[in-house]
Amino acid sequence: MRKGVRKLRALAPTLTLPRWAGEGMMLAVLVAYALLYASPYGLRVLTVAGVYALAAIGFQIVFGLGGALSLAHGAFFGIGAYATGILGSQWGWGFAATFPVSLLVPLLLALLVGLPVLRLESHYFALATLGIAQVVHLLAVNSPGLTGGANGLPGVPGIVLFGWAVPRGLPLAAVVWGFVALGGLVAWRLARGRWGRALTLVRDDPLAAGTLGLDVGGLRLAAFALSAVYAGAAGALAVHTQRVVSPEVLEFPVMVSVLTIAVVGGRGRVAGAILGAVLLLHLPEWFRFLERSYLIVYGVALLATIVLAPHGLTGLLDRLFPTRPAPEPKPEAPPETAIPTGPLLRVEGLTKSFGGVRAVDGVSLMLEAGTITGLIGPNGSGKTTLVNLISGLESPDGGRVLMGNVDLAGQRPDRIARAGIARTFQAVSLPEGASVLAAVAAARLERDGSIAEAEAHALWALERLGAADLAAKPCAGLPAALRRRVELARALARQPAVLLLDEPAAGLTDGEKAELAGHLRAIVTTGTALLVVEHDMGFLLPLAGHVLCLDQGRPLYAGPPEGVRSDPAVVAAYLGEGV
Fold first, then answer.
1. Hey, how many other C-beta atoms are within 10 angstroms of the C-beta on 523?
2. Cα(376)–Cα(534) distance, integer angstroms
3. Nearest to 267 by CA among 219, 318, 232
4. Torsion of CA 542, 543, 544, 549, to 10 degrees
């Protein structure tokens, strides 16, 4: 046995498959099982597994790609079920009329509640969505005139397609899994496209996503709403399968099942939703012979899966049978823009307070095309806060941030990024699960029409910084100097008029700093204006043409770099005697 495992591990890296091969083989196995082996009861279990697979595919969008733990997904499932149940059993509507309504009602509710709850972070969002689910459940139980109350509504008609009443068994399983295939294909294409890449970046680093021109709120709301459509569709199919609707479709075990399917199958993967649903719906049946002990074995099997395959079953299969890497694109320069001249950015009287602390107090500066301005000061002087105010991560209490004649103060980060301002961060944040090329291409998702185009432009930015050989490497594990270079390439890929760099030389060796200085000098030759926050005076002063020093949020010095070391106020507040 052990020898066989070793042989499999040794052979696995040589077995590369097309990216669609796993999904194709999975569907082929399901079709073969349904046609050749499944009993009538087995077909019923397979049909229910298809219902949960469709719900889990939707959950993969909001949870797997978007990173939002929505506990209202089960409520959307139940709302879709009740829409079909009420209209079908009480009003006599057919499938062609009830199914669209079961998609529309959860969608409208998701849009209504999504605007406020998506502003909440992590566990607060999860608790808010759980509250929504509980309210919906209470309404269903306490509205007997509409929902049948605790007893529910019997007599829901089956599916009728083009005059054909779909019988139970293989035909019904085929219809349900046809919807799974259609929904899976749509979700798969979305996940692999620009929208899916953008949503993944929002999950990994929402701050960086906004400064790269991505509408974080809009992407989250779209994912939340789309997941509700999938849940509503699954709920409708569940009711047509069971021919009765009751408050059970709104209870928390439905939500737990969908969440478990997503985690066990593989977070963010359509194939994971399908594999997880088939496995979790069939595992209890396989262990029924254990009678009262089957739930214990079932729980142990799930726990073992999570421990041994933390990235889900699809992640385990990817490690054993890796897919063929996509061919690397050829570098392509983005469309040329006119070289700017004159003043590009004017900051006038910017102020910001946090409680009783005035972090930025009446700061003004001007950045001209093709120049480097240094921003210095002791820790806590307001440097990073000023950069956050300019880039939109913080809203000022007063003052203006002017690009031309447009005041950007208080605008969303994505709108400021689209106006021509890019930035890097003091602590470099790159998506650990992505390649360097994908991380840099994220900067072009808002502008380019396809992933291939974005990656070609990203490779151009990497070449410009002498880092094209890093394109295929994962971001995880890159040393500090290379991480900073990749982040700079990501900012450059946006072709900004103004580039804000927050301590770009931190943690670099002298040789790496000299190389970075050369890159920055090359960048300003294209007309870009740089604002560089830095503590290393040996790196910054020979580079900058103008220096602004802050202390306790107020300007202490503004002038040429030659005057920094001799200014008594700067020496006393920041540099210290003897510098």
1. 22
2. 6
3. 318
4. -70
Q: What secondary structure letter does DSSP report for 474?
A: B
| Region 6-20 average pLDDT | 49
Q: Residue 421: name the closest of 429, 431, 409 by CA.
A: 409
Determine how many CB atoms are found less than 10 A away from the CB of residue 579: 11
Tell me if 565 sits within 8 A of 579, measured CB to CB. Answer: yes
User: Cα 491 vs. chain centroid, distance in angstroms?
Assistant: 19
Least confident piece of the model among 13-17, 425-429, 470-474: 13-17
Amino acid at site 78: G
> Rounded to whole angstroms, how far apart are CA atoms 501 and 391?
11
SS3 71: coil
Question: Burial of 253 by CB count in 10 Å (0-12 exposed, 13-18 middle, 19+ buried)?
Answer: exposed
**pLDDT tens-digit map of 96-143:** 999 999 999 999 999 999 888 888 877 889 899 999 999 999 999 999
CA-based end-to-end distance of the chain:
69
For residues 352 and 394, is the Cβ–Cβ distance under 8 A? Answer: yes
Q: How far is CA 365 from the centre of its chain?
A: 35
Q: Which of 426, 422, 424 is nearest to 506 (CA)?
A: 426
Summarised one tens digit per residue, pLDDT across range 38-82 is: 888 989 999 999 999 999 999 999 999 999 999 999 999 999 999
Q: Is 244 helix (H, G, I), strand (E, B) or coil?
A: strand
Beta bridge partners of 421: 498
Q: Residue 309 and residue 271: Cα distance in Å, rounded?
A: 15
Show Cβ contacts of residue 377 under 8 Å, excluding neighbours closer than 6 positions. 383, 549, 550, 551, 556, 573, 574
Nearest to 134 by CA among 263, 261, 247, 232: 247
CA 262-265-271 angle, 5° bins: 100
Q: Which residues have C-beta within 8 Å of that of residue 350, sequence separation ≥ 6?
A: 360, 362, 363, 364, 386, 389, 396, 398, 399, 400, 401, 409
CA dist 171 and 278 (Å) reads 18
Residue 8 has pLDDT above 50, yes or no: no
The structure tokens listed for 470 are 């890093």
Distance between CA 159 and CA 240 in Å, rounded?
Answer: 6
Other Cβ atoms within 10 Å of 250 Cβ, number: 27
Query: What dihedral angle (degrees, nearest 10) is formed by the CA atoms of 317, 319, 323, 328?
Result: 150
Instruction: Look at the chain and count its residues.
Output: 579
For strand 498-502 and strand 421-423, is the pairing parallel, antiparallel, or unpaired? parallel
Q: Which amino acid is at 75?
A: A
Instruction: Give ∠ CA 402-406-411 in degrees, rounded to 5.
Output: 80
Verdict on whether the full-model pTM lies above 0.85: yes
Provide the mean pLDDT of the chain. Answer: 88
Other Cβ atoms less than 10 A from the Cβ of 136: the count is 20
Q: What span, in angstroms and rounded, lies between the C-alpha atoms of 420 and 411?
A: 13
Specify burial of residue 483 (Cβ count, 10 A radius: 0-12, 13-18, 19+): buried
Distances (CA, A) of 490 to 425, 443, 485, 486: 12, 6, 9, 6
Question: 408 and 388 in contact (C-beta within 8 Å)?
Answer: no
